[in-house]
Write a structure and sequence with these properties.
- Helix 1 runs antiparallel to helix 2.
- With about 170 residues, the protein is mainly α.
- Strands 1-2 form a two-stranded antiparallel sheet.
- It is about 70% helix and about 0% strand.
- It has one domain: Methane Monooxygenase Hydroxylase, Chain G, domain 1.
Length: about 170
């Protein structure tokens, strides 16, 4: 059932979705590259990649805003609410060629976003491990109470006894 008479609107929407798919694919590549950089402790590469991700995020947000505008135009044309215009609705109501193209874009987007989520989860674990290691090293280097090892003349723990590689008061 074809409810769309304005091919320009659906072509614009398909175009935006295709561009978004490419942008998310690029984001996935950056995320995978960042994982390798974290493993290799390549801080300059991580900073560079993060800057690229931020620019790409802004580009994706703009594309998403434009896609929402196109969806609102389509909803107005067919007399529906914008939130009712889902990919599944469009796939079921576009001409076959457009429906097939949209179905492929949807499948690809779902796959890319799933891989991106998994990559981001791995990166989150790597970052947490790095932060734990940094905290461990920091604790080794700064003064800490050497609890239980030094006692004063009355048998109490001598709080003036400190252990650490670096004196913080320097």
């Amino acid at each position: 059932m074809d409810v769309f008479t304005n091919n320009s609107l659906t072509n614009d929407l398909l175009s935006f979705l295709s561009i978004e798919k490419s942008a998310y694919s690029e984001m996935l590549s950056l995320s995978l590259a960042k994982k390798d950089m974290m493993i290799k402790d390549d801080l300059a590469g991580i900073n560079n990649t993060t800057a690229k991700e931020n620019k790409l995020y802004n580009r994706i947000k703009n594309l998403e805003d434009r896609r929402v505008e196109e969806t609102e135009k389509i909803a107005k044309e067919v007399g529906m609410k914008p939130e009712e215009i889902t990919l599944d609705f469009l796939i079921g109501n576009l001409p076959k060629q457009d429906s097939d193209r949209l179905s492929k874009i949807k499948t690809d987007l779902v796959s890319i976003l799933d891989k991106l989520n998994r990559s981001n989860e791995i990166n989150k674990v790597l970052i947490a491990a790095q932060l734990d290691y940094i905290e461990f090293c920091r604790e080794l280097m700064i003064e800490r109470d050497n609890i239980g090892n030094n006692y004063d003349n009355c048998g109490y723990v001598d709080k003036s006894a400190r252990a650490g590689v670096i004196d913080q008061t320097v």
